[in-house]
Amino acid sequence: MGKKIFWALVIVFAFSIAGYAIVQYGVLKASNAGLVAFKLQKPDFELTPWVYVLYVHIVTAIFALIIGPFQILMKPTNVRKRRHRRLGYVYVISITVSGIVSVYLSLFATGGRIAGLGFLLLDVLWVGTTLTSMRKIRAKDIQAHKAWMFRSYSLTFAAVTLRLWLAPLVLIFGDFEAGYRVVAWVCWIPNLLVIEAVIRKKGLR
């Protein structure tokens, strides 16, 4: 697959999931979303404040999901460097906030402790790779900055791969909760493995 086609697909998927989230949680009722509807079947589940924390996570994650590809693909010119820096701060802040509130969400993850641990590790690595990328560019290590930004966005893209994996896994296991336990890990580990191969191929430190 050519580089242009690959990034075109990444952008299409990113915008598609962002659009879905905006419509589902911003236009329609959150209670009609598949995950929320499943949780509401549990008699001991409290919708608030969980749903408000979910909204914070969704809004900030959408910013990161949309900004990421353009940050990676942006060609360095004087004007674009300033834009890149500003968008970079929005990206970092969005992921930091989203990652922190996601720790709370992982405590109530569908699928129990196994799924919760998968999402918790994702949150830690997500914030960690992003902050490391920022630290590397402040040290003027551009190659390392790019490598860590690739890792960061591969974890941001878990928002997309989670939805791509979920339906097949639910069909395989015949149960939504069982599928969700697996998708909590599958949505990000393959992403990270693939991007590590890309980093090595590019020869980035």
Task: Write a structural description.
With 205 residues, the protein is mostly helical. It has a single domain (3-202), classed as Four Helix Bundle (Hemerythrin (Met), subunit A) (Up-down Bundle), CATH 1.20.120. It contains nine helices and no strands. The protein has helices at residues 3-27, 34-40, 50-73, 78-106, 112-138, 142-156, 158-173, 176-186, 189-202. The two termini are 24 Å apart. The mean pLDDT is 88.
| Tally of DSSP helical segments | 9
Low-confidence stretches: none
* CATH architecture level-2 label: Up-down Bundle
Number of strands: 0
Secondary-structure class: mainly alpha
- Radius of gyration, in Å, reads 17 Å
Order of helices and strands: HHHHHHHHH
Task: Describe the structure concisely.
It contains nine helices and no strands. By secondary structure, it is an all-alpha fold.
What topology does this entry show?
Elements lengths: L2 H25 L6 H7 L9 H24 L4 H29 L5 H27 L3 H15 L1 H16 L2 H11 L2 H14 L3
Helix pairs in contact: 1-3, 3-4, 3-6, 4-5, 5-6, 5-8, 6-9, 7-8
Which terms summarize this structure?
205 residues, Four Helix Bundle (Hemerythrin (Met), subunit A)
